[in-house]
């Protein structure tokens, strides 16, 4: 097993031979995971294939191992790995010395699977939502409002409504206008599990607070599961009209 960490007098230091992409210049803090995800999204099909194979080697892989796994020439594999290192998605360290000559490199993937990241943090949000103290949803709704204020910082009020559907799509809700554009149907939800388990009620209330803050209106409500296979966002209604989950 290759040791990815070395301990010194100053604590635990990660070994990183790859170049870091992105805009973070402070070497004293970890790289934002969002940079890794964005870089991975820009890869070519062949680069994704090599990266996918590399992720199946949690203890790292040599070029010849990836060549055998993918049926590609070692020079082709090495070229793709060099590009992935330049993009900051892969790093390498020298393998343990096994004889004379230049030591071979062992390569490691840096970027996670997007669905794995989402699943872990959705679980965290669910746990935090269950710890909210009140049962009437005020704390959850205010948390959603605070979340929206951070997300919409610097966004002019006249643009907020136009941003709503775009934001919902980026958040994973698969929004579609319905009823002549007076409502938005949400055809997906990040908090619905693969087995169909519904989110905690506080999660829906939190998102309702988010929507109200983005639209700068109390008369926006989220109606969970109001139609088969979707939830509804309605305008001109009040939170008191919102049915329970």
Automatic annotation (TrEMBL):
Q: Which domain of life is it from?
A: Bacteria
Gene3D superfamilies to which the protein is assigned, alphabetical? Winged helix-like DNA-binding domain superfamily/Winged helix DNA-binding domain
Q: Record's Pfam families? A: RPA_C
Protein name, per record: Transcriptional regulator
Q: Replication protein A C-terminal domain: from which residue to which, for each copy? A: 40-92
Membrane-crossing residue ranges in chain numbering? none
